[in-house]
Amino acid sequence: MFLAFVFSQCVLYPHLYTTEEKSDIISTVEFNHTGELLATGDKGGRVVIFQREQESKNQVHRRGEYNVYSTFQSHEPEFDYLKSLEIEEKINKIRWLPQQNAAYFLLSTNDKTVKLWKVSERDKRPEGYNLKDEEGRLRDPATITTLRVPVLRPMDLMVEATPRRVFANAHTYHINSISVNSDYETYMSADDLRINLWNFEITNQSFNIVDIKPANMEELTEVITAAEFHPHHCNTFVYSSSKGTIRLCDMRASALCDRHTKFFEEPEDPSNRSFFSEIISSISDVKFSHSGRYIMTRDYLTVKVWDLNMENRPIETYQVHDYLRSKLCSLYENDCIFDKFECVWNGSDSVIMTGSYNNFFRMFDRNTKRDVTLEASRENSKPRAILKPRKVCVGGKRRKDEISVDSLDFSKKILHTAWHPSENIIAVAATNNLYIFQDKVN
Amino acid sequence: MLSKGLKRKREEEEEKEPLAVDAWWLDPGHAAVAEAPPAVASSSLFDLSVLKLHHSLQQSEPDLRHLVLVVNTLRRIQASMAPAAALPPVPSPPAAPSVADNLLASSDAALSASMASLLEDLSHIEGLSQAPQPLADEGPPGRSIGGAAPSLGALDLLGPATGCLLDDGLEGLFEDIDTSMYDNELWAPASEGLKPVPEDGPGKEEAPELDEAELDYLMDVLVGTQALERPPGPGR
Q1: Which GO MF terms are attached to this record (chain A) (predicted)?
Q2: Once rounded to an integer, what is the mean pLDDT over residues A378-401?
C-alpha cells in the first residue's frame, strides 16, 4: 500500500445550517495555497471555511484538525427579469488568491456572477473615544473636560467576510470554471461558450478571450467544459470541451484566442465505439500539474495525463470504473452519464485522485502504477482507523468484502475532492458530508 | 454499507421498460450486439433521446452541455437507423436546416411528428436574439464539417440575454443590429404569442417556413422588445 490514509474528520453539513435539503449539498472544495484553510461551497450559496488548528505538543495524536473558521452567504438566488428565470445560488467553484497580507481572499462563483471575498480577523477594538460613550452614543461636547487617546483592547476573535468585488453581467451561459492567473492581477471565468479575462480591480468590463459560439446556434455541437491558467506562464491557459478535446492557448498570439496553439485529442478506439462515445469522452475537469508540465483530464470513465509536448495522445490513462462501460445505456437513462467528476493532483504530482459512485474515490500512483479504491462513509470511519481498500466485483464469484456492480449506489457520487498542497491530507465531499483524511504517521 | 440497491432517477415522462441487456445499443457491427434487431433497439434509444431533448428544452434555462450531448447522440442514432436515406448536406449558409427537416429525410413519420411538435413547443420560449458575434479566424470548433447534421434550431430561439444591456445606454442597444439577423431563416413563423401544442400530431410534415409578412412581423418584434444582448467585447 503506497499510501495509508486514516479517517480524521467528518463534518455533516446539516449541523451547520438549517435542515433545508437543497442547501446542504457540497458543490465545491478547495484548499488555499498553504493548506491552512479549506473552503467549501454548497448548493445554498454558502461558503464555509475551515482552518487547520496549530499542532500542539500536548496533543501529538491530533494532527491538526480543521475547525470552522468562517461561514458566510456568498450568493443569493436571483431573478433574471428579462428571461423570466431564476439564477441558482449554488457555488460552482471557489478559487483562492495567494496570501499577500493578513487577510485572505477568495473568488466564488455561481452560474452567472463571480465575487471576490475578503476574509479577515479582528481581535482588537478601540476603546476610550472622546465624543462617544462606551455604548456609542454621542456625548454632549459641553460635558467633555479632558481629552484622552483611544486605545486598542483585545476582544474575542471575530472573523468577518466582506465582498470586495462583484463581477457580474458578463456571462450569458453558465459559468463552469474560474482560474486565478499567476500574475495575481487577472483571472478568467469560463461558461459553456465563452471565456472572459478580468482584472481584479475592474468589475464593469472584461475581455472576451475565447468565443466558440457559432453564428447560427443550430450549428452548435460542442461546448466548453473547463478552463485553467498555467501555474507559471501567465499568458497560457487550457480549456476542455464536450468532445473530449483540450486546447492550449497563448494570449500573446492574439486578443481573441479562438486559434489554439496546441490541440490535444486522442483518436477514438474503434473497438469501444458506441452511441455514447461522445458523451463519455466529454471532459468534466482539466487541471495543470503543479509543475506545469502536464495536464490531467477527467472524462466519464477515465483520468488521462497529457504531456504538453505531445498532442496526439495522453501519456497515461487510468481506468476509474471501467465496469460501468457495459452499463452505459442505463446510466444514460438515469442521466448519471452526465455526472461531472473532478480530479486533483497531490502536491508532488506523483498521485492523482478522483471520485466515483457509492461514495468511492480512487487514487493512482503515477510512479508505481498502483491504484486504490477508498470509501467515504460514516459506517467505515472510526477515528484514526486506516481506510480499507474497496473492490468492485465485475463478474463471477464475489468475494466477501467485494461489492458487485449492481449493488452500487449511484446516488452517492463523489464529484468534488481536494488535496492539500504539500501534505497528504485530502478533503472529500460526499453529498452533504465533508470528509477529511490524513496519512498515517509512522 | 453493502448491498445498497441500484438507485435510479426515473424521468416522469419515461415509460420505458427496464433495459435488461445493455449491449443492444452498440453499433450493429460490434461483436457483442444482442439478438434483438438493431433497428428496433435503436428506435427505443432514439425515443429516449428525444424525450431527454424535449425535457431539456422545457427547462427555463437548459443545460447547454446536456443539450448538445443529447442532440449529438441523437444524430448518431438517427444515422444508424436510416443509413440509406441521403441526408442533405448542410450548405452554408444553411437554408432552414431545422431538426425536423433532416429527420423528415428518413421515412419515419413518427420521428418527424415528434420533432415537429418539439419545435412547436420551442416557439413558446421567449427567445431573444443574440447579436451576431465577430467570426473567429478559423471558425468555432463547434461548427460541423460538411455532412448532414440535425441542427439545434431550437437553440436560436433560446437566444440568451442578460442584464448587461444598458452599459452604453440606449444607443448601445441598437449598435449591433444588422440585417444578418433578419436573414436567419430559422425563426419559426409564430414566435410570439401562444399556440396550442399539437401532441404528436400525425402527418405534420412541413418544416417551419417564413414568408415576407412573417419576416416583417419578426422585425417589428425585434425592434419593439429592445431586449438584445450586447456581449462584452475586447477592450470594453
Answers
A1: protein phosphatase regulator activity
A2: 82
Do you find a cis peptide bond into A421, omega within 30 degrees of 0? no
Whether A315 contacts A256, CB under 8 Å: no
Rounded Cα distance between B106 and A112, Å, is 40
Domain that holds residue A92: 5-439
Tell me whether residue B45 is in a domain.
yes
Q: Do B152 and A219 touch (CB under 8 A)?
A: yes
Q: Which of A82, A220, A375 sits opposite B161 (nearest CB)?
A: A82
Q: Looking at the predicted structure, is the pLDDT value of residue B164 above 50?
A: no
Question: Is the residue at B140 inside a domain?
Answer: no
**Count of domains forming chain B:** 1
* Contact at CB, B22 and A328, closer than 8 angstroms: yes
B-chain residues within 8 Å CB-CB of A282?
Answer: 65, 69
Q: Considering the domain boundaries, does residue B77 fall inside one?
A: yes
Enclosing domain of residue B47: 39-81
List the grid coordinates of A196.
472572459
The ipTM, to two decimals, is 0.90
Distance CA A143, CA A132 (A): 11
Q: How far apart are CA B68 and CA B60, in angstroms?
A: 16
Q: A–B: how many Cβ contacts below 8 A? A: 222
The pLDDT tens digits for A100-150 are: 999 999 999 999 999 999 999 998 988 888 888 878 788 888 888 889 999
Q: Decide the pairing of beta strands A236-241 and A246-250.
A: antiparallel
Q: What is the mean pLDDT of residues A389-396?
A: 87
Question: Does residue B70 form part of some domain?
Answer: yes
Of these ranges, A63-77, A179-193, B36-50, the one predicted with the greatest mean pLDDT is A179-193
CB contact under 8 A, A275 and B227: no
How far apart CA A215 and CA B184 sit, in angstroms, is 10
Residue A81 near residue A66, CB atoms below 8 Å = no
